[in-house]
Amino acid sequence: MSVGSATDRINLSAPWIDERDEELVLEVLRSGWLSLGPTGPRFESMLADAVGAPHCAAVSSGTAGLHLCMHIAGVGPGDEVITSPYSFVASANCAIYEGATPVFADIDPHTYNLDPAAVEAAITPRTRAIVAVDIFGYPAEYDELVALCDRHGLTLIEDSCEALGARYKGKPLGSHGHPAVWAFYPNKQMTTGEGGAVTTADESTYELLVSLRNQGRLETSSWLQHGRLGFNYRLDDISAALGIGQLEKLDRILESRRAVAASYGELLSNVDVEPPLADDEDHVRSWFVYVVKLPAGADRDAVMGRLADQGIATAPYLPSIHLQSYMRERYGFGEGMLPVSEDCSARTMALPFHARLERGDQERVAEALRAALV
Ligand SMILES: Cc1ncc(COP(=O)(O)O)c(C=O)c1O
Predict the structure, then answer these.
(1) Do 351 and 290 form a contact (C-beta atoms < 8 A)?
(2) What is the mean pLDDT of the chain?
(3) Tens digits of residue pLDDT in 2-14
(4) Cα 365 to Cα 374: distance, rounded to the nearest angstrom
(5) Interhelix angle for 237-248 vs 250-267, to 10°?
(6) Ligand 1: which residues within 6 Å by Cβ?
């Protein structure tokens, strides 16, 4: 392993790819069975086991998975879907794809997840579904959200794209019954290159997912017979093979990420930032990114600029979705609508973070951040 020098670039994220991954991918390439082969179902069954879900359908991205969940929930024109403004755009876009309107409810300033009271206040007769997001790998408030959905007859979809391995009330996310959507872009805990999956306890949802991702083919259809309008949201077998390699070492990956996070916690204890919320009995985070909140009034752009000058990558995670230009143009959203999310968006910042980030690099990041804030 090379020892990083004081000027080497420190990247924001890095996948953990090893010889086993290469071997598994090569096996599929050599088999010639690159899609709809035996590797996809193997990957799906391993992922279902990892999250404690009865069914798993792999798809081409987390976005595709969210879209299919909206489609299956029957979300359509005239409907409203409540979600978090402090998320990646896909958790709101999936509603728009089906002709529905995204409605944003404000978040908790420490978990950065939906505030159930704000969700309840946003419910109208048009509300059809809630997309709850486990942002930065921290589980959302499912007891409250499930109760709200039951009371108002709404569908709950979990955007767990950032949270593989997290636990809520002692059970893994994915095992709580409602559909959960996963994503495997290379910055995630595990990767398939591009890719995603939906896990669910409901067999008919699973069967619909399998048909819809495959151009609406029915189990009984031949290749050119389509029983419903579908999509090409399949995950190919090459990506699934990489996914198998990643799942084989998932525990190691998650443990290493936890250790890197603990190390940041120690190194940043004398730096004037709010660290990510610690776990409690009900919420066990899966470490996706390491996001700190700068003090009110700090010049985040300047801080990021100083770190960049030292070769340290950072990112302004996350902008509030309602303030993205296309959202303002489409719906007339503007500043002041969601004050907690907007304040977090202005002050939060992701530091370099991945399973194999070296202690020396973390020391450089912590020192650079401390110096940039004085
Ligand atoms: C919270 C959240 N939702 C959805 C997605 C979409 O996943 P993908 O990029 O695989 O489409 C991501 C990925 O970045 C995400 O972080």
Answers:
(1) yes
(2) 97
(3) 445 666 999 999 9
(4) 15
(5) 60
(6) 61-63, 87-88, 90-91, 133, 159, 161-162, 183, 185, 196
